[in-house]
Design a protein that fits this description.
This protein has one domain: Sandwich (Immunoglobulin-like). Helices cover 28% and strands 35% of the residues. It has 4 helices and 9 strands; from the N terminus they run H-H-H-H-E-E-E-E-E-E-E-E-E. Strands 1, 3, 5, 6, 8 and 9 form a 6-stranded mixed beta sheet that branches. Strands 2-4-7 form a 3-stranded antiparallel beta sheet, with no helix packed on it. 25% of the residues are buried.
C-alpha cells in the first residue's frame, strides 16, 4: 500500500512538472521579438509601440557607475508610482539590448533586484510602463571586464 501511494505521488509530481514546464515557453514567446531585437529602439517599439518616453529621475534606479565584472552587474529598480504594469531593462551596447522585463499585478509592489550581463560600457535604461505613460531613467555604466562573450 505504501509503495502505491509513493508511485501515485510521483506520477502526480511528474504531471505537475510537465504542466509547469510549458508556462515559460508561453511567457517568453510573447516577448521573443523584443528579446531578439539588435537595437534598443526596435525592442522598445515591439514592447510599447509608439508611446512616447518621458525622461525622469523620480524612481529609484541603482546600477553601479563602474562594473568590475560585466557578467554580473547588479541592478535595483523601485518606485511608488501608481498602476505600474511592467518594468524593462535595456543595455544599449549589448548584442540584444533587452535584458529583462518584469510584469506586475495590480496592487503589487513594483520593485526588484537582479543582475544583468554587459559586454561593454553602455547606457542602461529602466523603462516603467503605466496604463497611460512610459517613464525612463538612463545611467551610463563603465565595464572594466567583459561579460557578454568577453
Amino acid at each position: 500500500m505504501q509503495g502505491t501511494l509513493t508511485r501515485r505521488r510521483f506520477g502526480q509530481a511528474v504531471l505537475a512538472f510537465a504542466a509547469l514546464a510549458t508556462v515559460p515557453l508561453r511567457v517568453f514567446a510573447r516577448n521573443k521579438e523584443a528579446f531578439e531585437a539588435v537595437k534598443s529602439d526596435d525592442a522598445l517599439k515591439v514592447l510599447f509601440g509608439d508611446k512616447p518616453l518621458t525622461e525622469t529621475d523620480s524612481f529609484e534606479f541603482k546600477v553601479p557607475d563602474i562594473a568590475e565584472d560585466g557578467s554580473i552587474v547588479p541592478v535595483t529598480v523601485s518606485t511608488d508610482m501608481e498602476g505600474v504594469q511592467s518594468i524593462a531593462l535595456l543595455v544599449d551596447a549589448n548584442p540584444n539590448p533587452l535584458s529583462a522585463r518584469f510584469h506586475f499585478m495590480p496592487g503589487a509592489v513594483p520593485e526588484f533586484k537582479t543582475r544583468i550581463k554587459m559586454g561593454e560600457s553602455s547606457d542602461v535604461r529602466a523603462v516603467i510602463e503605466t496604463a497611460d505613460a512610459l517613464y525612463v531613467a538612463t545611467k551610463n555604466v563603465k565595464v572594466t571586464l567583459g561579460g557578454c562573450g568577453g
